[in-house]
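Input chain follows. Return structure tokens only.
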Amino acid sequence: AQQKTHELIDETVETISAIVKKYVDRNEPFVCRRCMMPESLGGWWDVDANLLDAIGADTFMPIRVAKSSTTQTDPTQFQRSSTDSDATRQMTDKSAYQERNMVASDFFSQYTDHSGRGLEISSDEHWYAAQIDVVTTLPGLLKYVASSAPPKHQLMEAVGPTPPSSHHPVTLYFGAGERTTQLHYDSLENVVCLASGGTKTFALYDPVSSSKYLYIDRSVHGNFAPANPVDPGPNHPMAKFALPSSVTLSVGDCLYLPVYWYHTVTSYEERTISINWWRSPSTQKMSVLESIFCGRQDYGAGAKC
């Protein structure tokens, strides 16, 4: 299934707010095609020299590291390495992935061939600058991120208020080479926009079917899913009934990705930069979703047999 799309650039503030709020209230994803501001589409994000100058060549960045795929047809799998629960990771601020601190100039040097492989360390490694907090780690990019946001922040304001700074309200994802993420959900509302490169494809699983078919135990798995609906295997046979919606973003496109929607993100050979703006969900919506997700309440709407 394909997600609904909208062109919001020429809409009024009131119209944008009304359109977006309908989706937010239903917790339904949608795509805004070429929704980023024109400044983001002028090629600034495509030039490494611009980024290095803004970030600072000697700035340290946390880089995710994964073993490169051994086949040409399969993307590198960036999988969670920690077995800690969500709660433990939040208290320790520890990443769920294998990471290495690297100066920006070293990281950027590998992208001249857009291979996504770590050239200086080992050709068996794939590096990915993922979920980097722009405010604290890359403050030199803030003004460029601000000028690239969807139209005059009207979309963001309709999605929800800015979360506390401890929740990293703006994050950057920067990588090259075919790669995919592990199936997971986010506990904040997310507007993700593709600022540079080729395309990214999202496979989206709604919260109701996810809670039924993905063998989730949040005390064990946190916000990740242990099952793979594409290849369930003998341990997770019901996962085949979790049917995804698929959406592909091109440069300038933005996706509203609501809370509790499990998803994977697949990128391709071409270098890409995406920006995530995180927003706080309403407490009322979270209460309803939590009850439904955990099977405590169907509000009288469930089937009776």
